[in-house]
Design brief:
The protein contains 9 helices and 20 strands. It is of the alpha+beta class and 468 residues long.
Length: 468
């Protein structure tokens, strides 16, 4: 029902009804405030959880043996790029690069006038892979060049060879076949349907009505490293179907781009600085988590009127306080044998954060790398040991907070569930307030009608009195 302003009473009925509905909506407003608070709390938990997941990742890296045995690799040649998985065994090796890997590529000698009409006398062929499996068939006496290319490239069995129509001169096209993989493993052959393989060469002619001559643009070649310069013995050679060699030295990958006449030396050396970087990353991740906890749970300032300003979304939250204590305790509690993390450069501060003394850590690591590793991360030495160092403790805290059943995950879900329930209640109040508005409108409409009737009676009485 539309609002009726006071035509008789002179009252601003619409304004009165709106104010009454606004007063009635006070409980709904409180629900909306509760939704905003719950949403901020959920966002706060999620922000802390993101930092705890980063802490988990940093800790996991140091629970593995590879996190404590990183190496740096180098090469004496720019044409040989060496990379390390981070766990390569130390050492060095020298070799020459005798050959680069190459894909086989053939070009037909017979030509076609174009790709859409006419044929060539190239005969009927099958394309076979290195194991003799037929990849595609074509017949140049009945198919156009375009059809042959489509037949070869469209064969479901063929992923090893690509065909292309190549224009070598006006009115002259040739068929090029190229292996998709380099090395002898990607080699392919041609076989005539009459059993005679097409000749591959640049001078031999074959004219039996079924076969044709192909020029070999490049042969299928494996890349070859030679550990003994100039040696012809296969025992001294390292072979790869590509220009990448994996694990020539355990954990070291080599990529070659040119042959060499002189020896290239590749070395893998221990990199304690990388261990220090990993430990620093762990401490940094823990501090980032502590900083986010402090930000979300900060108390703020209480004004003279009792209003709190500058507080975090999770002011005074018990879950965050416990989590903060657990992170710091993971570092301060004694390690195996009564050792302290502080002796290896990791300490807590009075402000509730952590510090990492890189120099102190490297000194301790240089003196006893195995001892430092076993105290800070015993599971990296023996995954079944069940021991707990700083690394395992921090990992346990992070997993306990961020897993699917973790404290932060459950707390955030609790707030999200509360938001859903509150929104349902707010929707119910929308219906309730609309009913109240309709009742107020009906009330004031009746009131105006009654006032109008009274006004008419008053006018009639006044008229009667005037007549007397």
């Amino acid at each position: 029902m539309a609002a009726v302003d006071g035509l008789v009473s002179g009252l601003n009925t619409s304004s009165i009804i709106s104010q009454l509905v606004q007063l009635d909506a006070a409980p709904q407003d409180r629900l909306k405030t509760a939704v905003t608070t719950a949403q901020k709390a959920s966002t706060g938990y999620q922000a802390v959880n993101t930092k705890m997941l980063a802490l988990k990742t940093a800790a996991e890296a140091l629970t593995k043996a590879g996190g404590w045995s990183p190496t740096s690799v180098s090469s004496t040649s720019t044409s040989v790029v060496a990379t390390s998985s981070g766990t390569a065994l130390t050492g060095s090796t020298s070799f020459t690069v005798d050959q680069l890997a190459a894909n086989r590529s053939l070009l037909s000698q017979d030509g076609w006038a174009d790709t859409t009409s006419g044929t060539a006398s190239a005969g009927a062929f099958s394309v076979l892979d290195a194991q003799g499996k037929v990849l595609a068939n074509f017949d140049s006496s009945t198919s156009t060049l375009g059809q042959i290319v489509t037949e070869i490239n469209g064969s479901a069995a063929n992923t090893a060879v690509r065909a292309a129509a190549v224009k070598t001169a006006d009115g002259s096209y040739r068929l090029q076949l190229t292996a998709t993989s380099s090395g002898t493993a990607g080699n392919f052959t041609l076989k005539s349907h009459n059993g005679t393989p097409p000749t591959v060469g640049s001078t031999v002619s074959v004219d039996d009505g079924y076969a044709t001559e192909f020029t070999e643009l490049s042969a299928a070649k494996d890349a070859v490293l030679n550990l003994v310069k100039g040696s012809t013995s296969d025992a001294t050679k390292v072979v790869s179907s590509t220009n990448t060699f994996a694990d020539v030295m355990p954990g070291v990958t080599l990529t070659v781009s040119a042959t060499t006449s002189d020896y290239v030396t590749v070395s893998a050396n221990a990199a304690p600085d990388k261990v220090a970087d990993s430990v620093k990353a762990l401490v940094d991740a823990a501090n980032a988590a502590l900083a986010e906890i402090a930000n979300q749970s900060k108390a703020g300032a209480i004004g003279a009127n009792g209003t709190v300003t500058g507080a975090g979304a999770l002011r005074g939250d018990t879950t965050l306080r416990q989590l903060q204590s657990q992170v710091v305790s993971a570092v301060t509690y004694a390690l195996a044998g009564g050792a302290s993390a502080g002796s290896m450069g990791i300490q807590s501060t009075k402000e509730g954060t952590l510090t990492f003394d890189r120099t102190k850590f490297l000194e301790a690591y240089a003196d006893d790398p195995d001892g430092v590793r076993e105290k800070l991360a015993p599971t990296s030495v023996d995954p079944t040991s069940g021991g707990e160092g700083v690394v395992e403790r921090l990992l346990k805290v992070a997993e306990g907070a961020s897993s699917s059943s973790g404290s932060l995950t459950k707390a955030a879900k609790g707030r999200d569930d509360a938001v859903k329930e509150l929104n349902d209640r707010i929707a119910e109040w929308d219906d309730r307030l609309e009913l109240k508005r309709e009742r107020y409108q009906k009330y004031y409409s009746r009131l105006e009608t009654m006032l109008g009737s009274l006004q008419s009676q008053s006018s009639w009485l006044s008229g009667q009195l005037a007549n007397l």
